[in-house]
Amino acid sequence: MTDSSIFIMDKDRFWGSVDMENIYYIETIKSTHYYEVKTKHGEGKLHADIVALQQWLPDYFYKSRASTLVNMKLVRKVDTKNRLLYFTNEICCSYTARRSKEIKDILNIRNYRNYKEEGNEKNADTAL
Question: What Rg value do the Cα atoms of the chain yield, rounded?
Fold first, then answer.
């Protein structure tokens, strides 16, 4: 095992190594001390404490809600109305309203309607 991989348990209770860059998200399984790990190659379980796990994971993992750590490098689409992060068309996870601004900043989502760059401001009254 390297610093860039983690062992997770599959549905047959076998432990396998997964590259952290292939993990979409890690989410708590309610009423247990286990986490569901959703990856590019399937899913598995992990026994961990979320605080320790968050400190151990690379910086590109972000806590999108109290129970979920998301690999922000793999986010492909964002549904801001329903607060969903999509990794594929079928795989997504939610985030809290409180995290919306931070997620938009991390993913560099901007509203270009009112975008003004210092020294390059456009005047609405100026004719083209």
Answer: 18
Element holding 8 (H helix, E strand): strand 5-9
Query: Per the structure block, which two tokens stand in for 97?
Result: 């309203």
Alpha helices in 39-99 (DSSP H): 50-56
Tell me how far CA of residue 40 lies from CA of 11, 50, 93, 106, in angstroms. 16, 21, 14, 22
Taking CA atoms, 125 is separated from 58, 114, 117, 121, in Å, by: 47, 14, 17, 12
pLDDT in tens, 81-112: 999 999 999 999 999 999 999 999 999 887 76
| Residue of 3, 17, 49 whose CA lies nearest to 26 | 49
